[in-house]
Amino acid sequence: MRTLVAYASKYGATEGIAQRIGTVLQDKGLEVEVRRCEDLDDVSGYDAYIVGSATYEFNWRKAARRFVRRNVDELAAHPVWLFSSGPVGTEQVDKNGQDVLKAAEPKQFSTYADLLHPRGMQVFRGAFDHEKLRGSDRLFAWMPAIRDILPQGDFREWPVIESWAASIADELQPVR
Ligand SMILES: Cc1cc2nc3c(=O)[nH]c(=O)nc-3n(C[C@H](O)[C@H](O)[C@H](O)COP(=O)(O)O)c2cc1C
Q1: How many domains does the chain have?
Q2: Angle between helices 158-172 and 13-27 (to 10 degrees)
Q3: Which residue of 21, 88, 122, 156 sits with most ligand 1 atoms within 8 Å of its CB, as the best mutation to test the pocket?
């Protein structure tokens, strides 16, 4: 089973998630490549695809959106899973009483559900370090109203990520 994990990351948090997913799949005996969406041209020849992106202002990164657009037929014809690295903080529900992970779904998920019929679409908590931010991200994240909803830190839940990846491996390569 050749599996591609394609990701779009701006500051590295999503890259870390993609690499961890790749490691879990490899440990489960799958042949895996973990690559940046920007670096991928022809993606034929894989048996399954996992595509992930950081979410900024409710949207996937442009590189991930372009990747899906370019490869929609190939992706739709194979088992595909999507993940998003988004909400920061540890709250389970937001101030409107909505599930934080549900509320953080990128706008693209509903479109991709119809286009790709993914076997799973998962939002993971993300991470950011204010010192690493550049340009308008830095100004935006420092605004008092935004600081409350964007606490800085690393909130990635590795056991959750690993168990999601393990369930994909089991689905692709059931234990005999
Ligand atoms: C300027 C800015 C905007 C963000 N917008 C969102 C958002 O709309 N929804 C969300 O869930 N997370 C948002 N986040 C959190 C990031 O998605 C999170 O930090 C992510 O893990 C970053 O991944 P990366 O390091 O791979 O780019 C935002 C972060 C910043 C700095």
Answers
A1: 1
A2: 40
A3: 88
